[in-house]
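A.,

Following up on our hallway conversation. Structure tokens first:
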């Protein structure tokens, strides 16, 4: 579980009987149908470097709130922003429900099918060690417990004199209700005889609970716990679980007291020595008392709600008292080292060492040969329901065939480049925690490329004002449709050229074709223009590039604080071409050979050479690089291979990891907490 994720428990719809999710009891319905038993999750930290700790509970500590000098809360109530409940809709997995729906489908007269059944989802948001919201502790173990919302809770591992203010003295038999005392951190019962003494606490309507106490019997004849304690003296109602002297030994005894009449419910001989732990659980139907492996259980019958009390016949001492709502269901989970999936992937340190085939022994082989021999089993082993041990076996076999090694216990995500004689045909990803590409993680990779694109045919230059728009100059004059800088071939009219003919779409096209008569010059300009490299005062062509005619001029549009400016350079010919002019847009627009260039966006490039206008632009995009994936058994290592072992070209790559996980199934209204989506991208180059 990533540290920013909530802990979630989803119920099947057949369990909705404990809480009628989507129905209300009708008039005259039995009390059982009207009974509400809302649930919530409580969290305890059970293993970490800082030890065990209780984090959230159903209600505030009752004794802390009612003692003579109340304590501030040291444990948070789960319902105060941490625990929440939701309703999900989904198909039932109950076979009887499925059969019932199938019958209704076969016999329409039985009514329409109901495929969306309501059930409950319990969530608990992350809570830190200092009880603030945000994130779980890293790599800690927690226990989540389903308990009654607003259920009973108090906890004392020792007592002080102020705690006495939270207890109500009561008694039965001939004993008088007497205030208890505190002795060495223990709550001590009075020494008087003739009956039992009670130290009652809690609300008078507490029910469905469990109580734990440590008893030092001392010279008392009996001591224990009472639940369902009614108000008054003598105590009118209670169920008592006591450890008491029985002949030469001791017994664990359950008794019911109602209307002043006592009845024994059960008894078991028990071995005790020194301080004894007594655990009493009040279920809806039964009461259970346990000391170690000795258990006595009996029906509760009519004795239900009431206070909880420590009870003794003689000066017994109670060293602790813990009252909890019933633990209906518990499960444990371990948190990740990382706050999120994106943070997990981003732990990659940016290094990309080379791992050649055969580097760990054996003759170097090709990735193509290994995949041809063993790659056929990969698709089957990467299915979600495939056996992890079989996948591990295939993974180990391919790693051994490649002759490569893996890092032991990586502390973060690592990547290495798998190479053979043909080049790079794979990556090895390792992680300290699983990245499950068989269940909820998708890996993809793209290669970044840069392409030059010519935007249209040659257009005659210069052109007088026209009464209609030209068919192709849109990308030249409208930067909005060309976000990437353009490159333009601008042709200068020859001295002594004949007057331009009447301009029509056809005549422009014909003139453009005529302008390409010198195909070698045109081809060289088109080949060289994308490679022009500008410095502050010059322009150059890479070595081996096609040549630009020496009588040409290079136009470069730049953006400055004062606005767009047009730089004019001599054509590079062996040596860089020097900058000859810098013009404003207005100055360029007034010159026929630069009027079109004045309309270009910053970053545009043009070449002035006799006959027509040609424009284009660079496109930069990412293209998919197909992948073949194989993970080890626990998915802490992944082979990312080129299908067939064909080497990937050198360049810039992006490896994208996307996590999509449903926290619970749902066919109803979308809930943002129902689905976890996160992603991260790693940039790689070789």
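Then the amino acids I'd put at each of the 686 positions:
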């Amino acid at each position: 579980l990533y540290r920013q994720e909530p802990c979630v428990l989803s119920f099947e719809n057949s369990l909705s009987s404990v809480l009628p999710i989507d129905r209300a009891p009708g008039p005259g319905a039995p009390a059982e149908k009207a009974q509400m038993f809302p649930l919530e999750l409580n969290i305890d930290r059970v293993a970490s470097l800082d030890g065990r700790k209780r984090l959230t509970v159903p209600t505030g500590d009752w004794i802390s709130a009612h003692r003579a000098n109340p304590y501030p809360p040291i444990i948070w109530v789960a319902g105060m922003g941490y625990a929440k409940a939701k309703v999900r809709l989904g198909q039932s997995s109950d076979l009887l429900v499925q059969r019932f729906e199938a019958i209704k489908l076969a016999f329409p007269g039985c009514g329409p099918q109901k495929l969306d059944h309501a059930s409950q989802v319990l969530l608990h948001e992350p809570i830190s060690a200092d009880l603030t919201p945000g994130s779980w502790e890293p790599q800690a173990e927690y226990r989540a417990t389903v308990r009654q919302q607003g259920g009973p809770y108090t906890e004392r591992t020792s007592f002080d004199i102020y705690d006495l203010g939270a207890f109500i003295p009561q008694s039965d038999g001939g004993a008088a209700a007497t205030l208890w005392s505190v002795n060495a951190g223990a709550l001590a019962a009075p020494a008087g005889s003739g009956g039992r003494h009670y130290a009652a606490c809690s609300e008078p309507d507490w029910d469905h609970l469990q109580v734990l106490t440590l008893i030092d019997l001392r010279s008392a004849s009996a001591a224990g716990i009472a639940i369902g304690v009614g108000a008054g003296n003598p105590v009118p109602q209670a169920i008592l679980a006591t450890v008491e002297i029985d002949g030469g030994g001791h017994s664990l005894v359950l008794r019911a007291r109602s209307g002043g009449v006592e009845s024994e419910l059960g008894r078991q001989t028990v071995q005790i020595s020194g301080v004894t732990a007594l655990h009493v659980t009040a279920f809806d139907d039964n009461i259970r008392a346990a000391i170690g492996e000795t258990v006595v259980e009996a029906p509760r019958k009519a004795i239900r709600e009431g206070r909880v009390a420590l009870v003794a016949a003689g000066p017994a001492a109670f060293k602790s008292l813990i009252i909890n709502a019933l633990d209906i269901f518990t499960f444990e989970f371990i948190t990740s080292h990382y706050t999120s999936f994106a943070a997990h992937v981003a732990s990659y340190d940016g290094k990309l060492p080379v791992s050649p085939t055969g580097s760990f022994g054996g003759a170097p082989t090709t990735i193509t040969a290994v995949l041809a021999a063993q790659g056929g089993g990969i698709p089957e082993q990467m299915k979600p329901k495939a056996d992890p041990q079989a996948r591990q076996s295939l993974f180990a076999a391919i790693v051994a065939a490649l002759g490569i090694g893996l890092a032991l216990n990586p502390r973060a995500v690592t990547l290495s480049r798998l190479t053979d004689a043909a080049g790079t045909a794979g990556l090895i990803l390792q992680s300290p925690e699983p990245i499950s590409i068989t269940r909820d993680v998708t890996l993809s990779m793209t290669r970044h490329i840069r392409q030059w694109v010519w935007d249209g045919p040659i257009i005659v230059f210069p052109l007088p004002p026209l009464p209609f728009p030209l068919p192709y100059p849109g990308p030249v004059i409208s930067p909005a449709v060309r976000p990437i800088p353009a490159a333009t071939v601008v042709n200068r009219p020859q001295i002594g050229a004949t007057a331009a003919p009447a301009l029509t779409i056809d005549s422009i096209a014909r003139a453009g074709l005529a302008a390409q008569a010198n195909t070698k010059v045109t081809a060289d300009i088109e080949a060289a223009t994308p490679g022009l490299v500008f410095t502050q005062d010059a322009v150059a062509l890479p070595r081996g590039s096609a040549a630009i005619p020496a009588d040409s001029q290079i136009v470069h549009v730049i953006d400055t604080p004062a606005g767009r400016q047009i730089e004019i350079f001599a054509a590079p010919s062996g040596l860089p071409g020097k900058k000859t002019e810098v013009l404003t847009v207005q100055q360029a627009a007034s010159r026929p050979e630069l009027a079109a260039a004045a309309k270009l966006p910053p970053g545009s490039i043009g070449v002035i050479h006799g006959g027509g206008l040609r424009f284009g632009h660079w496109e930069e995009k990412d293209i998919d690089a197909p992948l073949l994936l194989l993970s080890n058994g626990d998915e802490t290592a992944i082979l990312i291979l080129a299908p067939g072992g064909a080497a990937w070209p050198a360049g810039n790559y992006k490896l994208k990891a996307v996590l999509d996980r449903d926290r619970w199934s749902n066919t109803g209204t979308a809930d943002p907490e129902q689905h976890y989506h996160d992603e991260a991208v790693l940039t790689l180059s070789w």
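Residues 459-517 have pLDDT under 50 and may be disordered. Curious whether your intuition agrees with the design.

B.
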